[in-house]
Amino acid sequence: MIYEPLLYTGTLPTEIKYELKEKIEMATYELPDTVKELFEQGENQYRIIDYASEMEMDNNQSMECFLDHIGATGDNIKCHDGTQVTLIHPDYGMMYVVDAGGLGDFFSHGFEVSLHESDND
């Protein structure tokens, strides 16, 4: 289990003391399992919260983790700009953009999937 700060009891930042309260499981992966599932679910938000692995990730690394998790290959990736990826799938006539961002620390990551808006793609 991980613990979250519950109550500030100090007067200065260096004197902060916390009561601890059991909060969430150590690892939460709310992600589609495949590229096809991502396309089936459409515009959506996903997250990874993983204190169990003790592996810190920046936004670029979390995007790679996301792509690995859904099994994205070069055939699915139209454009990869680090924290933003445009995905395609042969069964669908649309593209989705996935944006990776942090959720407050290097163990919590968010992903926003939106329909790709383009005039000439």
Task: Explain the overall architecture.
- The protein has helices spanning 35-41, 59-70, and strands spanning 3-5, 20-22, 27-30, 44-50, 77-80, 84-87, 96-102, 108-115.
- The strands form two sheets. It has a six-stranded antiparallel beta sheet. Strands 1-2 form a two-stranded antiparallel sheet.
- It is an alpha+beta fold and 121 residues long.
- A hairpin with an 8-residue loop joins strand 6 (84-87) and strand 7 (96-102).
- It has one domain.
Strand arrangement in the largest pleated sheet: 3-4-8-7-6-5
Number of distinct helices = 2
Rg from C-alpha positions? 18 Å
Given helix and strand content, the structural type is alpha+beta
Secondary-structure map:
Blueprint: E1 3-5, E2 20-22, E3 27-30, H1 35-41, E4 44-50, H2 59-70, E5 77-80, E6 84-87, E7 96-102, E8 108-115
Antiparallel strand pairs: 1-2, 3-4, 4-8, 5-6, 6-7, 7-8
Task: Explain briefly what this protein structure is.
The protein is of the alpha+beta class and 121 residues long.
Please name the defining characteristics of this protein.
two-stranded antiparallel ribbon, disordered N terminus, 16% helix, 121 residues, 2 helices, single chain, elongated, alpha+beta, six-stranded antiparallel beta sheet
